[in-house]
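ARCHIVE CARD
CATEGORY: sequence design from structure
SOURCE FIELD: tokenized fold
FIELD CONTENT:
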């Protein structure tokens, strides 16, 4: 009897999740296989729902893993209460749950259950402190979408990520277009890894003009991918993939080194104050790679003043301790910080003071339609006055014509950046541009004598 009990306990441990008591991945896959066999025999459909909790990581980080565990237990109970006894629920691991809805009649019945799950997970969780999460649900149908277990799970996963990308707290059905998109992305990841190995990336530079002095001693470093077949590929197409895959760490470090060396060279040959801005993503703050930049500059005997770290409002709004610590450590080591896309997010003025931001970049969406007496001009003027009161310098992005430049300059904006001055160019062209700009704007001999 003892042996039988022990075997039963071992079987239970191997097939059920220790935390929630739900079937685990192993038992679920066994049940899913049987469900597919039943569909083949009876021609009755079922729906597979993959549920991922939105915001669960923040609960773990702020309240602790014990409270996170309590939330997972409560979430599993809430999901289970939305189902029939004939349906199946399992925990795949982490904050992912999966559900099989048996013998579905139509999409309406599936959507009713999916919405009930979303609604119940939106209710507050009474933990040590009240906590809130939501969920993203991916839905795939059997046999309509596939009769293969691996395919169904992959379909549900793709649909779930589509729900996340569409704003979270919603469900999304799998479509064949998602499969094509996934294949395209897989190929892109493969090509990006090859691009790193074969050094296909280049750093381009876009000048930043000092309006008051009509002088250039700042620029922004921007990555370009020179694909062997497609030519220059837009960063919009590959930067998000670099971030999702973590490749941004390796590529970002390479950009940083190139920009630092270029800025240091220009300090010696062109202007002793020259500085180049380098973009840093939230991923690079989380994995600590930005802290490595301190040692990289020390190893090259380059001053941290040659580089400004450019971050977005999303990075500034990251309340995790590690991001705050890294940002402050960079400041303590002499790096200046520029806040990109200002006015498009929800950053608090308190954050500007806390992290001692040096530059604010007015987003180009405010500059694009600038004209006398326009609301965009009023917004730009307000940002400039507020920034100066806080001791910050202002850079306007997306300057494309003389009128925009004059309006911004008259409003007291410190710097301008955009195609009116120069598009981003490679290092050689950039240096040539600096020489030509300097020659065109040098004071005449008569002015120097006076």
């Amino acid at each position: 009897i003892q042996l039988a009990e022990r075997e039963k306990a071992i079987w239970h441990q191997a097939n059920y999740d220790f935390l929630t008591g739900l079937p685990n991945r192993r038992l679920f896959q066994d049940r899913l296989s049987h469900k597919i066999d039943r569909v083949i025999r009876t021609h009755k459909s079922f729906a597979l729902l993959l549920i991922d909790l939105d915001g669960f990581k923040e609960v773990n980080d702020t309240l602790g893993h014990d409270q996170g565990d309590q939330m997972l237990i409560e979430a599993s109970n809430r999901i289970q209460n939305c189902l029939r006894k004939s349906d199946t629920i399992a925990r795949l691991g982490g904050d992912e749950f999966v559900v099989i809805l048996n013998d579905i009649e139509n999409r309406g019945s599936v959507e009713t259950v999916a919405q009930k799950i979303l609604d119940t997970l939106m209710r507050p969780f009474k933990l040590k402190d009240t906590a809130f999460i939501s969920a993203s649900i991916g839905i795939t149908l059997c046999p309509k979408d596939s009769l293969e277990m691996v395919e169904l799970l992959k379909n549900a996963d793709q649909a779930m990520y589509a729900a996340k990308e569409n704003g979270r707290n919603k469900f999304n059905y799998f479509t064949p277009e998602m499969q094509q998109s996934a294949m395209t992305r897989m190929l892109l990841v493969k090509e990006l890894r090859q691009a790193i190995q074969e050094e296909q990336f280049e750093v381009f530079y876009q000048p930043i003009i000092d309006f008051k002095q009509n002088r250039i001693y700042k620029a922004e470093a921007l990555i370009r991918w020179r694909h062997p077949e497609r030519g220059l590929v837009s960063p919009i197409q590959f930067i998000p993939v670099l971030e999702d895959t973590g490749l941004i760490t390796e590529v970002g470090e390479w950009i940083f080194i190139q920009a630092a060396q270029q800025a240091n060279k220009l300090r010696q040959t062109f202007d002793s104050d020259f500085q180049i801005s380098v973009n840093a993503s939230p991923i690079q703050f989380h994995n600590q790679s930005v802290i490595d930049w301190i040692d990289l500059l020390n190893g090259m005997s380059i001053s941290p003043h040659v580089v400004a770290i450019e971050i977005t409002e999303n990075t500034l709004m990251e309340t995790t301790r590690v991001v705050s610590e890294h940002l402050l450590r960079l400041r303590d080591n002499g790096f200046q910080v520029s806040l990109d896309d200002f006015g498009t997010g929800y950053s608090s003025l308190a954050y500007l003071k806390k992290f001692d931001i040096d530059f604010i970049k007015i987003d180009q969406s405010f500059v694009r339609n600038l004209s006398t007496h326009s609301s965009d001009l009023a917004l730009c003027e307000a940002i400039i006055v507020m920034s100066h009161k806080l001791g910050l310098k202002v850079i306007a992005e997306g300057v494309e014509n003389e009128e925009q430049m004059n309006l911004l300059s008259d409003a007291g904006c410190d710097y301008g950046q955009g195609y009116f001055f120069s598009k981003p160019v490679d290092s050689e062209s950039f240096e040539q541009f600096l020489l030509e700009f300097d020659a065109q704007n040098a004071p005449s001999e008569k002015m120097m004598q006076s």
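CARD ANNOTATION: Residues 176-197 form the longest helix (22 residues). The chain has 19 helices and 16 strands.
SHELF: design records, drawer C
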